[in-house]
């Protein structure tokens, strides 16, 4: 197991918890350490407990664990919420001068630092969190200079005075601990490396992937946790000639994005929860008008407004089956943050190659988790663009009928028609959500109806043959215990493998990034003795699909507390399940 | 693109299935003529249609076109224009489509001031669903779903537009062919969102708001030398006057700055590089 350190800062929402955590995470990343972050937050802006947690190691880490080594507590609640995770070697930094008297169990090292007054000495009480970061560096034996780099990045835009004051605040925190405490017995020491890492979350990876893929038009309506995709794109996409519009609602957002796509721009919308419901009406229009559109759903806990700031993977059925009638579509679900980037690019290519809606399904855990990667993990030279059967002034002629009309919905063998965008001479045509003929004109003729339905469905058949609907695999390929997972559970599963190996339990883990079309797992399932499907929902939507495909019952591990899986917890549950009966 | 585009180039060879005498025939002819007259070409024009008898207009015209879902034509049109400032965009629909299910979009399209035109065929009834009350139906207008009338005042779309910050508000009458065409033309030429409410009688389900009614009651603002469309107060007076029916340009903001100018949207977004943009690695480096 990786030698790691678990650190957290917690307080009230509005206390600057997020930026404090981010500054420390960036410092660790600059020091060549791996970082994996998680957030506890409530759906309110001020008040309410919130925490930013960091797990860091020199080895790659992909999950959170139930342990806290250093905790910066701005409120008593922060201590109370984390009591379970604190242990004998933990240190809690708090400000004894403040009006609350910290109740900290005896076996835990209490480090009382006058955060506020030291911050005032450095130039302002607002920097008390930075004082705490300096103190944390001292406890962890981590060179405060990395923190300086991070502070420069954070406050550089606000002028050198602010940067210097912050550095001073960190210094004061560090020195205070040095002078008043002897904490060597805790034994923390953060090794550094020369590795360069970037630190980003899943939504940032999706936004970056969209720009790399040539997405130039984005329409959205704010909703947690999808909003940060829009925030990322705003101000960046313009640099590449694009535009982001905040629509009046999700109905408008998806229809605007559809307009952009029909006009030839690679277009996207992203939403969550209630927003995806509102967009459903338009799913069928996108499919029937054969418009290439990427629709992202960053899942959160439902139904209704559910728990907006909590994790869930409950929208799979919605993505697969949402909308009236039968809608041919692709459903792609990245399983890691790097995959958020690459699968976004793939989603745009699939959308244009097959002229269908492509649902990109992510989840809250992935969207807010920041993780370190070598920059090559996002190598832009590897980005490939496939615009499909886009015709231009020279190639349009072969698709005109005897009267010179463009056959926008030509029933080709592979199901994919030529696509002309506005401005293409002789390409003008009608598209509609009504059933239509090859020219796009409304029809109720039975044979044309059947021809067009078959044609649209044929795209899926073609894609099944032409694309590699692969999966990712971990553990022992010959193990008789098969674990299947989708979405962000992969990291925790990969780490759970390590725990289980210690107990001599071996597993084959398959993480599936394509939900529809999806890889055929029948052979893998038949080869296994035990099959367990892991997902963050109550009913096992992915497990249902697997059972349907393989005509066999599987075991299920479901979590729907609103919190993502943790590696140690998964290891325990897998062990339990392996010895349990298969459900009847 | 040819410079000698004729209005018939905007006509598809599909025969309209509108009831003989429906106002939508005249509305459509005026739209096609206005498009041709303003130098547009079917290959550079995008028409988005709503749902309803009125929405069928997209099928009978020839251009790049989309016929979408009920009430959402305006968002589609805005998406087209925002990503392709080089394309002429016209959105068309009915009063139910635009002022009922799509009312929220109407308000926001108006205030965004995207450079496009919006033509609403206002027949004060739901035609396609066979005669229910629409948001512009009179409060005592008896229909299958309102046997004693809707008992609520009609929406005044012009006032709604004015209140939402419209930069161009006009009204025309499908049967006054030349004036209707001129007014749509002005909407197309306006720098911003050109809104035209067209009285387009439904001869099958509405026996109150008929051709005769409009002929007898219509006041043409062009004949009122005092009406200055750039005068907001004057526009307000005409728009809020519930005793008369007007045609003409009620209001035009001569300082209107369209959306794309305010937001720096200038590029044809359909053109993208073969791979990632040249400096795309900068996007990654930002996360150091
Ligand atoms: C979501 C949805 N609800 C209801 C309908 C049924 N519908 C079709 S057209 C229409 C009303 C059209 O009225 P209007 O816009 O005034 O157009 P007209 O037919 O009078 O030209 C309705 C309610 C629909 N197509 N979609
Ligand atoms: S029902 Fe009315 S609106 Fe529809 S086509 Fe007939 S006349 Fe026109």
UniProtKB/TrEMBL annotation, chain A:
<comment type="subunit">
    <text>Heterotetramer of the KorA, KorB, KorC and KorD subunits.</text>
</comment>
<dbReference type="InterPro" id="IPR050722">
    <property type="entry name" value="Pyruvate:ferred/Flavod_OxRd"/>
</dbReference>
<dbReference type="Pfam" id="PF01558">
    <property type="entry name" value="POR"/>
</dbReference>
<dbReference type="InterPro" id="IPR002880">
    <property type="entry name" value="Pyrv_Fd/Flavodoxin_OxRdtase_N"/>
</dbReference>
<dbReference type="GO" id="GO:0044272">
    <property type="term" value="P:sulfur compound biosynthetic process"/>
</dbReference>
<keyword id="KW-0560">Oxidoreductase</keyword>
<dbReference type="InterPro" id="IPR009014">
    <property type="entry name" value="Transketo_C/PFOR_II"/>
</dbReference>
<dbReference type="InterPro" id="IPR022367">
    <property type="entry name" value="2-oxoacid/accept_OxRdtase_asu"/>
</dbReference>
<dbReference type="InterPro" id="IPR019752">
    <property type="entry name" value="Pyrv/ketoisovalerate_OxRed_cat"/>
</dbReference>
<dbReference type="InterPro" id="IPR029061">
    <property type="entry name" value="THDP-binding"/>
</dbReference>
<dbReference type="InterPro" id="IPR002869">
    <property type="entry name" value="Pyrv_flavodox_OxRed_cen"/>
</dbReference>
<feature type="domain" description="Pyruvate flavodoxin/ferredoxin oxidoreductase pyrimidine binding">
    <location>
        <begin position="209"/>
        <end position="454"/>
    </location>
</feature>
<feature type="region of interest" description="Disordered">
    <location>
        <begin position="410"/>
        <end position="429"/>
    </location>
</feature>
<feature type="domain" description="Pyruvate/ketoisovalerate oxidoreductase catalytic">
    <location>
        <begin position="13"/>
        <end position="173"/>
    </location>
</feature>
<dbReference type="GO" id="GO:0006979">
    <property type="term" value="P:response to oxidative stress"/>
</dbReference>
<protein>
    <recommendedName>
        <fullName>2-oxoglutarate synthase subunit KorA</fullName>
        <ecNumber>1.2.7.3</ecNumber>
    </recommendedName>
</protein>
<dbReference type="GO" id="GO:0006082">
    <property type="term" value="P:organic acid metabolic process"/>
</dbReference>
<dbReference type="Pfam" id="PF01855">
    <property type="entry name" value="POR_N"/>
</dbReference>
<dbReference type="GO" id="GO:0047553">
    <property type="term" value="F:2-oxoglutarate synthase activity"/>
</dbReference>
UniProtKB/TrEMBL annotation, chain B:
<feature type="compositionally biased region" description="Polar residues">
    <location>
        <begin position="131"/>
        <end position="147"/>
    </location>
</feature>
<keyword id="KW-0479">Metal-binding</keyword>
<dbReference type="GO" id="GO:0016625">
    <property type="term" value="F:oxidoreductase activity, acting on the aldehyde or oxo group of donors, iron-sulfur protein as acceptor"/>
</dbReference>
<dbReference type="GO" id="GO:0045333">
    <property type="term" value="P:cellular respiration"/>
</dbReference>
<dbReference type="InterPro" id="IPR011766">
    <property type="entry name" value="TPP_enzyme_TPP-bd"/>
</dbReference>
<keyword id="KW-0408">Iron</keyword>
<protein>
    <submittedName>
        <fullName>2-oxoacid ferredoxin oxidoreductase</fullName>
    </submittedName>
</protein>
<dbReference type="Pfam" id="PF12367">
    <property type="entry name" value="PFO_beta_C"/>
</dbReference>
<keyword id="KW-0460">Magnesium</keyword>
<keyword id="KW-0411">Iron-sulfur</keyword>
<dbReference type="InterPro" id="IPR011896">
    <property type="entry name" value="OFOB"/>
</dbReference>
<dbReference type="InterPro" id="IPR029061">
    <property type="entry name" value="THDP-binding"/>
</dbReference>
<dbReference type="InterPro" id="IPR032686">
    <property type="entry name" value="PFO_beta_C"/>
</dbReference>
<feature type="domain" description="Thiamine pyrophosphate enzyme TPP-binding">
    <location>
        <begin position="51"/>
        <end position="198"/>
    </location>
</feature>
<dbReference type="InterPro" id="IPR051457">
    <property type="entry name" value="2-oxoacid:Fd_oxidoreductase"/>
</dbReference>
<dbReference type="GO" id="GO:0030976">
    <property type="term" value="F:thiamine pyrophosphate binding"/>
</dbReference>
<keyword id="KW-0560">Oxidoreductase</keyword>
<feature type="domain" description="Pyruvate ferredoxin oxidoreductase beta subunit C-terminal">
    <location>
        <begin position="202"/>
        <end position="266"/>
    </location>
</feature>
<dbReference type="GO" id="GO:0006082">
    <property type="term" value="P:organic acid metabolic process"/>
</dbReference>
<feature type="region of interest" description="Disordered">
    <location>
        <begin position="130"/>
        <end position="153"/>
    </location>
</feature>
<dbReference type="GO" id="GO:0044272">
    <property type="term" value="P:sulfur compound biosynthetic process"/>
</dbReference>
<dbReference type="GO" id="GO:0046872">
    <property type="term" value="F:metal ion binding"/>
</dbReference>
């Amino acid at each position: 197991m990786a030698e790691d350190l678990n650190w957290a800062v917690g307080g009230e929402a509005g206390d600057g918890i997020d930026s404090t955590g981010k500054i420390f995470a960036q410092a660790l990343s600059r020091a060549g350490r791996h970082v994996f972050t998680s957030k506890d937050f409530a759906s309110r802006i001020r008040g309410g407990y919130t925490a930013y947690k960091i797990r860091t190691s020199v080895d790659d880490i992909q999950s959170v664990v139930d342990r806290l080594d250093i905790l910066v507590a701005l409120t008593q609640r922060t201590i109370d919420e984390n009591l379970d995770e604190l242990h004998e070697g933990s240190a809690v930094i708090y400000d004894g001068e403040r009006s609350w008297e910290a109740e900290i169990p005896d076996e835990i090292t209490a480090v009382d630092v006058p955060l506020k007054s030291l911050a005032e000495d450095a130039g302002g009480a607002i920097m008390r969190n930075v004082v705490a970061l300096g103190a944390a560096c001292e406890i962890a034996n981590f060179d405060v200079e990395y923190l300086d780099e991070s502070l420069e990045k954070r406050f550089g835009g606000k002028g050198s005075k602010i940067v210097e004051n912050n550095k001073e605040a960190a210094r004061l925190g560090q020195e205070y601990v040095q002078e008043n405490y002897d904490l060597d017995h805790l034994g923390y020491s953060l090794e550094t490396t020369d590795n360069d890492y970037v630190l980003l979350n899943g939504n940032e990876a999706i936004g970056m992937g969209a720009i790399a893929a040539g997405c130039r038009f984005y329409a959205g309506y704010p909703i947690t946790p999808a909003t940060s995709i829009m925030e990322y794109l705003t101000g960046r996409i313009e640099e590449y000639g694009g535009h982001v519009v905040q629509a009046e609602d999700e109905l408008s957002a998806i229809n605007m994005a559809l307009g952009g796509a029909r006009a030839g721009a690679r277009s996207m919308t992203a939403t969550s929860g209630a927003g995806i419901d509102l967009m459903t009406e338009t799913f069928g229009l996108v499919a029937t008008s054969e418009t290439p559109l990427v629709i992202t759903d960053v899942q959160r806990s439902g139904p209704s407004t559910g728990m907006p700031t909590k994790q869930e993977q409950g929208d799979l059925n919605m993505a697969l089956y949402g909308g009236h009638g039968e809608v041919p579509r692709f459903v792609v679900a990245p399983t890691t943050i790097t995959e958020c980037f690459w699968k976004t690019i793939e989603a745009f290519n699939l959308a244009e190659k097959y002229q269908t809606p492509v649902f990109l399904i992510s989840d809250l855990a992935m969207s807010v988790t920041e993780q370190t990667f070598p920059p090559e993990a996002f190598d832009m030279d590897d980005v490939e663009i496939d615009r499909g059967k886009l015709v231009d002034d020279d190639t349009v002629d072969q698709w005109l009928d005897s009267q010179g009309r463009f056959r926008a919905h030509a029933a080709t063998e592979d199901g994919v028609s030529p696509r002309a965008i506005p401005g293409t001479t002789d390409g003008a045509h009608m598209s509609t959500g009504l059933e239509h003929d090859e020219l796009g004109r409304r029809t109720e003729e039975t044979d044309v109806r059947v021809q067009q339905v078959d044609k649209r469905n044929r795209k899926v058949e073609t894609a099944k043959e032409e694309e590699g609907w692969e999966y990712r695999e971990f553990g022992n390929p010959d193990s008789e215990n098969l674990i299947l997972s989708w979405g962000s559970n992969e990291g925790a599963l990969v780490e759970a493998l390590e725990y289980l190996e210690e107990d001599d339990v071996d597993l084959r883990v398959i993480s599936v990034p394509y939900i529809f079309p999806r890889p055929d797992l029948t052979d893998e399932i038949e080869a296994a003795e035990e099959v367990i499907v892991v997902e963050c929902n109550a009913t096992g939507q992915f497990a249902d699909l697997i059972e349907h495909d393989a005509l066999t019952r599987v075991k299920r591990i479901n979590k729907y507390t609103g919190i993502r899986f943790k590696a140690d917890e998964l290891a325990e549950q897998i062990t339990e399940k392996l010895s349990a009966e298969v459900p009847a | 693109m040819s410079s000698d585009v004729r209005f018939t180039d905007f006509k598809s060879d599909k025969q309209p299935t509108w009831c003989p005498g429906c106002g939508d025939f005249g509305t459509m002819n005026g739209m096609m003529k206005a498009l041709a007259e303003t130098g547009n070409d079917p290959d550079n024009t995008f028409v988005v249609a709503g749902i309803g008898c009125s929405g069928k207009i997209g099928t009978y015209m020839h251009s790049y076109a989309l016929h979408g879902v009920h009430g959402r034509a305006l968002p589609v049109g805005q998406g087209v224009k925002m990503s392709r400032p080089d394309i002429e965009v016209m959105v068309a629909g009915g009063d139910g489509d635009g002022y009922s299910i799509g009312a929220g979009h109407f308000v926001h399209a108006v205030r965004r001031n995207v450079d496009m035109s919006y033509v609403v065929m206002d027949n004060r009834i739901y035609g396609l669903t066979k005669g229910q009350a629409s948001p512009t139906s009179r409060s005592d207008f008896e229909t299958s779903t309102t046997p004693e009338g809707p008992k609520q005042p009609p929406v005044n779309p012009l006032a709604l537009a004015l209140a939402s910050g419209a930069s161009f508000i006009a009204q025309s009458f499908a049967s006054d062919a030349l004036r209707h065409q001129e007014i749509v033309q002005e909407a197309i030429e306006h720098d911003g969102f050109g809104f035209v409410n067209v009285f387009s009688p439904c001869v099958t389900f509405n026996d109150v708001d008929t051709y005769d009614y409009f002929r007898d009651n219509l006041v043409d603002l062009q004949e009122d030398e005092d009406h200055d469309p750039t005068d907001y107060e004057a526009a307000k007076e005409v728009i809020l006057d519930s005793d008369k029916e007007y045609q003409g340009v009620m209001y035009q903001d001569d300082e209107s700055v369209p959306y794309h100018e305010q937001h720096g949207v200038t590029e044809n977004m359909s053109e993208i590089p073969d791979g990632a943009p040249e400096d795309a690695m900068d996007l990654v480096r930002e996360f150091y």
